[in-house]
Amino acid sequence: MNTVNGMLETAVGVGMCVGPAVGVWLYSLGGFCLPFYGLGSFILLTVPVNMLTFPKRVEVLPEIRQFTDAEPAPVSRALGLTSILRRPGAVLPLAILSVTAVCLAVLYPTLQPHMYGLGVSVEGVGLVFLLMSAVYAVSSPLVGLATDRYKCPLSFMLAGLLLLALALILIGNSPLLPNVTHDMLYKQDVVAVVVIGLASAMSTVPTFASILYTLGEEGRVDVTTFSLVGGMWSAAYSLGEMLGPFYAGMMAEYVNFATSTTVTALLPASLAVVQAVYMCMECCRSRGKSTLN
What we know:
It is built from 12 helices and no strands. The protein is an all-alpha fold. The two termini are 29 Å apart.
């Protein structure tokens, strides 16, 4: 499941890489309207393809069957929104997803002015964003494969949060760090952008399967629960994408870019502490079960 989620996130990363380039090319050919006409036409073409290729019946995979009943679950036993949100193992991945989206979205309105002050052109800033999306696209399937193989989604999310906090401190050169030259600062920013792409994949890809694993340990997961978790996953990510630019704009009114990213680094760092505490509690609970057995 993490492998599939990683492939989906790769598709997102590829779209973020290709979209700006194709948009600029279509804009140069036909002006403002052509990119939208082209994208709309392409989306319409996917409809018959989807109708022909989507399976009529979805088989339950053996990996999922271990905590999923093949038969429809009674309504009384279905897991609802309230019962899902009562489980820390489900809420924590959603919080990690939102915080990751916030940390990424903070850079959208603020990274370009910062790099422009270093003498980087608009095209150069576009390449930096392209690099971050490319690293995310390449890292996502690898993270998914590794998570499925080693069965450690919690560890990957914890490592992703720590790397994300480190990258936010590096980018813009936090006031906590010694001053560097403009040339060195640009190189440091590029390294931080690469780390952000990797860290966001590590903290995002395992979240969906981690929620389902938690629910599967405590009860039956049916198709309704899958759909509900998918909707909550999308809502959590969209919430982060909405709050990120709003938060960045407010911070830009009072502090500089480096201070803003340093304050933002407190979000993944604090959540990493919570994640570590939760992992320790789960480890103690597992040992207690093993002792009783």
